[in-house]
Amino acid sequence: MQEKWKEVDRYINTFFAPSDSSLDGALQASEAAGLPAINVTATQGKLLMLLAQIRQARSILEIGTLGGYSTIWLARALPPGGRLITLEMDPKNAAVAESNIALAGLSGFVEVRIGRALDTLPALAAEGRAPFDLIFIDADKPTYPEYFTWAVRLSHRGTLIVADNVVRNGAVIDPASPDPNVQGVRRFLERIAAEPRVTAAVIQTVGSKGYDGFALILVTGDQ
Ligand code: SAH
Ligand code: DHB
Ligand code: MG
Fold first, then answer.
1. Which CATH number fits domain 2-219: 1.10.645.10, 3.40.1390.20, 3.30.420.40, 3.40.50.150?
2. Which end of the chain is less packed: N or C, by CB atoms within 10 Å?
3. Residues lining ligand 1, CB < 6 A?
4. CA separation for the pair 167, 182 (Å, rounded)
5. Domain regions of the chain by residue span
6. Integer CA distances (angstroms), 179 to 114, 132, 187, 190, in order
7. How confident is the model at residue 151, as a pLDDT?
8. pLDDT by residue (tens digit) across 36-69?
9. What is the average pLDDT score of the chain?
């Protein structure tokens, strides 16, 4: 089925995510710099942009930048004066992302912060950068439960939290999985379900990156 999923993504993208020199250039520069091709797909990037537009997000937080591909999609949803902060542990990835974001004409909207996200997240609250209207979680999976707790802390009523890679080719259903990524995602989903201030859905996805899924979490309660 993988080849069919890829072909359908390609067909969908001819209408809704046509090739674009900034986005294509970001992927080319990322590959040339040796970054892994684990960015969201174009189809998914367009969905992220659309979600930010539906939410009318003026402030966006991303956890896990890589080469800035998803960052560019999300930042394009911002209105004039909007801001996106993206957190990246690896300075090399951050440098590639900074360059890609600049070439996309988005430097004025986007700040890349280098460091382990659990170290850089506390500063956002302390600096008064929170609350965010949309938060995209896409960094190391074993830390997803802690990222969820931080995301809720940095939210207001109406914030949309989106998390990537929560189905993992179906591996997520195995409670005995030895994979720390699977265990991280399972604890993440359990924590969401136990949090009364949010309501959530998980949607399974197929496409050019295979079979995976997004968690969509709406903050409904007061913080
Ligand atoms: N959102 C990107 C893909 C992110 S891949 C896109 O779709 O285009 C995950 C990224 O998270 C990698 O760049 C990795 O270096 C970063 N990362 C992993 N652990 C991290 C941590 N503890 N803190 C911050 N970033 C981390
Ligand atoms: C992988 C994919 C992702 O979307 C991600 O955020 C991290 C890793 C992977 O395929 O390894
Ligand atoms: Mg991902």
1. 3.40.50.150
2. N
3. 38-40, 64-66, 69-70, 87-90, 93, 116-117, 138-140, 143
4. 8
5. 2-219
6. 27, 31, 13, 17
7. 98
8. 999 999 999 999 999 999 999 999 999 999 999 9
9. 97
Please tell me the predicted confidence (pLDDT) of residue 223. 57
What is the whole-number distance in angstroms between the Cα of residue 140 and the centre of ligand 1?
6
How close are the terminal C-alpha atoms of the chain, in Å? 43
CA of 136 to the centre of ligand 3 (A): 10
Cα 129 to middle of ligand 2, angstroms: 27
Q: Which residues line ligand 2 (CB under 6 A)?
A: 38, 138, 164-165
Atom of ligand 1 nearest to the CA of 143: 22
Q: Which amino acid is at 36?
A: P
Residue with tokens 């707790």: 149
Q: What is the pLDDT of residue 42?
A: 98
Q: What's the whole-number mean pLDDT along residues 75-84?
A: 97
Question: pLDDT: is 188 or 1 the higher one?
Answer: 188
What is this structure's pTM? 0.98
CA of 157 to the centre of ligand 3 (A): 25
Handedness of CA 170, 172, 177, 182 (dihedral sign): positive
